[in-house]
């Protein structure tokens, strides 16, 4: 089968899944950073609005936007990009109609789907597996048992890392009120970009964090207590999927198909050119945050990521391999 044929097959399979398988922090409108401008015939809308996070776990979007891969699939339809700090804020934007598609973690997407009785969102493609670690202050925490009584950060109430942390805490036999974060462990909701300074000041004793936040915390002296992948069968779990509002999918399936094609092509390029892709993702982060990651940070974080178009529906909520605490 040709490359084009394989791409069509992958896109068709992902869109079929979207049709039949249902599954705050602020936002910032950003320049796409792509050299490719809209050209050619427009699709069924003049502009499509997508969202993602300034995280390496969203490298599919970072690279797909920066390299113009997604814009080329859209032809004359303009790509507009908004960044978010965590999934619940992105879900709010999707349900309110301020963005049309977004790369987000599975927990907020599934929560929205459940609360809306299956009427809000659809997962239309996978993006990334892995890239999440539980890092702690080694002066205060040496084993899992030492986490009790400590202050541990997650990015936002209800986001994927927040749910995973609460699940892990429950499996230790401890109790925490999910809403307030109070209990045997203090769960402190902290924007990823603020986590390193919070750790440095002593405001938190660790964090369940995506990359590159986890590696930035390690650079501040934190140690890895566990890699979340160690809790999952075959060390594989969903961290980022491409999600669309059902309204937009129904009204503009051609646009959704184009964005999915762009996402598939972006992952193919990342996997074929990992060195160039890593540099592209870092340049995208520099454009979004004003500062590129140091080489040692991105080099430490990048190997933990797997870029895949498979949304792995069976691994889209915290179901660790074992309830026993890590040594």
TrEMBL record:
Q: Which GO terms describe its cellular component?
A: periplasmic space; plasma membrane
Q: Where is this region: Disordered?
A: 305-327
Among InterPro entries, the record links this protein to:
NrtA/CpmA_ABC-bd_dom
Pfam families, alphabetically?
Answer: NMT1_2 (PF13379)
The residues forming a coiled coil are none
Q: Which Gene3D superfamilies match?
A: Periplasmic binding protein-like II
Family as reported in the entry's similarity comment: Belongs to the bacterial solute-binding protein SsuA/TauA family.
Q: What is this protein called?
A: Aliphatic sulfonate ABC transporter substrate-binding protein
* Organism expressing this protein natively: Streptomyces haneummycinicus
Q: What is the lineage of its organism?
A: Bacteria, Bacillati, Actinomycetota, Actinomycetes, Kitasatosporales
């Amino acid at each position: 089968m040709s490359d084009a044929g394989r791409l069509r097959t992958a896109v068709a399979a992902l869109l079929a899944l979207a049709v039949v398988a249902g599954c705050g922090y602020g936002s910032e409108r950003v320049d796409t950073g792509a050299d490719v401008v809209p050209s050619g015939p427009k699709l069924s809308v003049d502009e499509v609005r997508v969202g993602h996070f300034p995280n390496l776990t969203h490298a599919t979007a970072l690279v797909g936007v920066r390299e113009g891969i997604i814009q080329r699939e859209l032809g004359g339809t303009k790509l507009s990009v908004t960044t978010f700090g965590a999934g619940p804020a992105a879900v709010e934007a999707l349900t309110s109609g301020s963005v049309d598609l977004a790369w987000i973690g599975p927990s907020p997407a599934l929560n929205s789907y459940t609360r809306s009785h299956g009427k809000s969102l659809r997962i239309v493609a996978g993006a990334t597996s892995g890239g999440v670690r539980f890092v702690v202050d080694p002066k205060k925490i040496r084993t899992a048992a030492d986490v009790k009584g400590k202050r541990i950060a997650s990015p936002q109430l209800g986001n994927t890392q927040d749910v995973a942390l609460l699940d892990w805490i429950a499996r230790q036999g401890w109790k925490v009120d999910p809403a307030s974060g109070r209990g045997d462990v203090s769960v402190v909701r902290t924007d990823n970009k603020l986590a390193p300074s919070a750790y440095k000041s002593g405001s938190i004793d660790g964090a369940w964090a995506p990359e590159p936040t986890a590696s930035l915390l390690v650079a501040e002296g934190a140690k890895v207590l566990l890699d979340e992948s160690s809790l999952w069968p075959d060390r594989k779990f969903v961290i980022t999927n491409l999600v669309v509002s059902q309204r937009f999918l129904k009204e503009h399936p051609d646009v959704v198909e184009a964005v999915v094609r762009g996402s598939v092509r972006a992952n193919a390029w990342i996997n074929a050119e990992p060195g160039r892709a890593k540099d592209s993702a870092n340049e995208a982060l520099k454009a979004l945050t004003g500062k590129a990651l140091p080489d040692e940070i991105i080099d430490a974080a990048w190997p933990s990521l797997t870029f895949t178009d498979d949304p792995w529906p069976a691994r889209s909520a915290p179901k660790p391999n074992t309830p026993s605490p890590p040594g």
